[in-house]
Write a structure and sequence with these properties.
The protein is mostly beta strands. It has helices at residues 5-19, 25-30, 302-308, 401-404, 412-417; strands spanning 41-48, 59-67, 73-77, 83-88, 91-102, 108-120, 125-134, 140-146, 150-151, 157-158, 163-168, 174-175, 179-184, 202-210, 219-220, 225-229, 250-251, 273-277, 292-297, 310-319, 322-334, 338-345, 364-365, 379-382, 384-387, 393-395, 405-409. Helix content is 9%, strand content 38%. Strands 13, 14, 18, 19, 20, 21, 22 and 23 form an eight-stranded mixed beta sheet that branches. The protein has a seven-stranded mixed beta sheet with strand order 3-2-5-6-7-1-4, with no helix packed on it. Residues 1-35 have low confidence and may be disordered.
């Protein structure tokens, strides 16, 4: 039997593919020093600035290349803020650009832009990145989200002590009346081709609860906060590893239609006004943090919103069993109504942000992997960069949750009450402004 040269090559290739994985890695590495050194590819990014801002006005320009597969970040500083040249390992990346500019009114703004899911091949790549100017919000911001819950002494999960804190980062009174807390419809760990795709104009949401009031009923002083609890009781009476939330300013309450899942209502703590929730039982914050949490000032009344802002999307979900058409229906909030939003995820599973980069260019977390058992007793807390003479912190607010938040921190309520702070039963010994900076 005669074998052609071409057939011999194909046969050799087949043998290598079949048996190469069985060859010890150390033996392969010893063949060449270059085998352990990854090759780098050139990446060129052209920056498009917002109208009215010149390159000469920018300072501290930098871009971060985040490798979606490896989780590694590479920050590149530039002498020319409009042209980025970098050498990175080939792969799939999210790119974030930031620079600082002083506007005509004397306010410092952050010029930001983002590219998600870009491919940098071994031959290199070039992209254009559009930017926008962002200034700190003149409203309340989310300062802390405790979504993980605690553990009972038995080791079982306990979720009733979840809470969100809102903070007045300005120098004047802010009224919280009408502010809506929401949870995103989509997960930061799954991305599909949604039709219609509204991310550039709206945030898709599946839970909305609003602070009641006529406009001036809920004042928040500079440096003041609102504690909004799932269940506003002293949870230590049920779980000795938990803490007291009976002093909360508000709680969200659901009249469940599922007998096995009922809520607890503290009549001494006002309830949020429930506008919509996807579940017929009780709403709990996603306790692995695979969603975005936000606050918004919705520009229409409740009835008009529920009638006119429904959102239905279609997409294909592919599994080992095949591809299946899917439909989801919830609600949408126009981006201009969003006051603050925080994308949350886990390090090993993060895929994308579920909102436009103008709202949030980063993400934060309380777990390294999905279902990380170390996440319990931890929160995400917004970073403080200074403390005023009055003794309250000024928090970062750049609309970049990676930059603005300390991840995997001890919740402030656990610190203040000096209760159990981990699965080993240790007690929190000191208090901080943001999970890191000690008081």
């Amino acid at each position: 039997m005669r074998i052609s040269v071409w057939n011999l090559i194909l046969l050799s290739d087949l043998i290598m593919k079949k048996f190469l994985p069985l060859i010890p890695i150390a033996l392969l590495a010893s063949c060449s020093d270059n085998a352990t050194t990854p090759s780098l590819s050139p990446a060129g990014i052209s920056v498009s600035l917002p109208e009215g801002i010149e390159s000469a006005d920018l300072r501290d320009a930098a871009v971060t290349f985040y490798n979606i597969s490896s989780g590694e970040s590479t920050e590149v500083s530039m002498t020319d803020p409009l042209h980025i040249s970098a050498s990175v390992t080939p792969g799939f990346y999210n790119l974030t650009y930031t620079a600082t500019v002083t506007l005509e009114n004397g306010v410092d703004a952050t010029v930001k832009g983002q590219l998600t899911g870009v491919t940098i091949s071994p031959a290199g790549a070039s992209y254009t990145l559009s930017t926008f100017a962002s200034v700190p919000t003149d409203d309340l911001i989310i300062s802390e989200i405790f979504f993980t819950g605690t553990l009972q002494t038995s080791g079982n999960q306990y979720n009733g002590d979840q809470y969100i804190k809102l903070y007045n980062n300005t120098d004047h009174v802010i009224y919280a009346d009408g502010l809506t807390i929401f949870e995103s419809l989509f997960l930061t760990t799954q991305k599909f081709n949604y039709t219609p795709d509204i991310i550039d104009t709206d945030v898709s949401v599946k839970a909305l609860y609003t602070i009641p009031g006529s406009g001036t009923d809920v004042p928040v002083q500079p440096g003041g906060e609102l504690l909004i609890a799932d269940i506003a009781i002293d949870h230590r009476e049920i779980n000795s590893n938990s803490f007291d939330l009976s002093h909360a300013d508000f709680e969200w309450y659901d009249q469940s239609s599922t007998p096995s899942f009922t809520d607890i209502d503290n009549p001494l703590v006002p309830n949020l006004d429930k506008w919509y929730c996807y579940t017929l039982s009780t709403w709990q914050l996603h306790n692995r943090g695979l969603v975005a949490f936000g606050i918004a000032r919705i520009g229409v009344d409740k009835d008009e919103y529920l009638a006119n802002y429904r959102y239905t999307t279609e997409y294909d979900q592919t599994t080992v069993a095949g591809t299946f058409p899917m439909t989801k229906t919830a609600y949408r909030i126009p981006n201009e109504w969003v006051v603050d939003i925080v994308n949350c995820s886990v390090e090993a599973s993060y895929v994308w942000n579920v909102c436009a980069p103008s709202l949030d260019m980063g993400w934060t977390h309380c777990g390294e992997v999905d279902n990380d058992k170390k996440r319990y007793f931890h929160a995400v807390r917004r970073k403080a960069y200074e403390v005023t003479g009055e003794g309250y912190p000024v928090l970062y607010d750049t609309n970049n949750s990676t930059h603005d938040f300390n991840s995997f921190t001890t919740p402030s309520e656990i610190e203040r009450q000096h209760t159990v702070c981990d699965a080993d039963g240790n007690i929190a010994q000191f208090e901080t402004y943001d999970g890191i900076m000690k008081k």
